[in-house]
Known about the structure:
This protein is α/β, with parallel strands linked by helices. It is built from ten helices and 18 strands. The protein has helices spanning 30-35, 40-43, 61-73, 90-100, 124-135, 230-234, 261-270, 292-295, 311-324, 328-336, and strands at 4-12, 17-19, 24-26, 44-54, 80-84, 101-102, 108-111, 143-147, 150-153, 157-159, 168-170, 177-180, 183-186, 208-209, 217-221, 240-245, 274-279, 303-305. Strand 10 and strand 11 form a beta hairpin. Helix 4 packs parallel to helix 9 (311-324) and helix 9 crosses helix 10 (328-336).
Amino acid sequence: xxxxxxxxxxxxxxxxxxxxxxxxxxxxxxxxxxxxxxxxxxxxxxxxxxxxxxxxxxxxxxxxxxxxxxxxxxxxxxxxxxxxxxxxxxxxxxxxxxxxxxxxxxxxxxxxxxxxxxxxxxxxxxxxxxxxxxxxxxxxxxxxxxxxxxxxxxxxxxxxxxxxxxxxxxxxxxxxxxxxxxxxxxxxxxxxxxxxxxxxxxxxxxxxxxxxxxxxxxxxxxxxxxxxxxxxxxxxxxxxxxxxxxxxxxxxxxxxxxxxxxxxxxxxxxxxxxxxxxxxxxxxxxxxxxxxxxxxxxxxxxxxxxxxxxxxxxxxxxxxxxxxxxxxxxxxxxxxxxxxxxxxxxx
Length: 347
């Protein structure tokens, strides 16, 4: 049986890091990393491209575009893709790739490690092996993260732990699969998944690809006593603000000084900018209609609702939507579209 061809795209991160006197920093190339896991050669024909070699703290939207381009330049030549990435911003990159490369019939799998590949007690070897294994699965498609034996949709991952090997969790959505050493066990909702049907019935042989993002997006976490004039301070530099509200969607009625929050937010969106409402509570999502302190924002033009999306997915999706259009109604249409399982269709 012919082995599948997998392209490994290396970007750096802890998995590639070494201690050289000033703290861990990426030092190993993708080619060097694969030599630590020779078992991969029994699974696939593996090629490597080095997109960059950086700590993922330094990952920017322009780097997301570079990773997407690296994949698409070779898309027709491979059966799947594995992206080696640092854990700190992996959820952002997985979400961004979900919007830049939509409905991919070929799997794009991100992984990394909590300990460097050269460490005596690393998780890197198994994560690399299992990610390649998942990339060979006939039912695997779209963007996902495979890490610590769990496979998570690219828009639903969040780094939950800073040191443990089970670093990532799937937020408000079931994991796609579990990997038990070298066996893929799909979760019940996806046990009979048909790759040919794709996301939302998409059946094309190639993904829908985008190459523009607007990085002028600011995530603002509400804290007690926050000055509502923060919106006027942000206006010269940002096209959208993502407001992490209290609870299920609570926004203070009055600021400590300056205009009330409602006036400040309405002024922001009435100027043509976008505001996205989400919650700073990790699970179960937003509902602006429950409390008086949120209901005023439920239907105002230019105010989008993040529903049960992760903050990482909201940031990436807002940048993607604004990268395609400046029309507020069209931005809202793009933002509310379900992509790679990023939001539950309850609104």
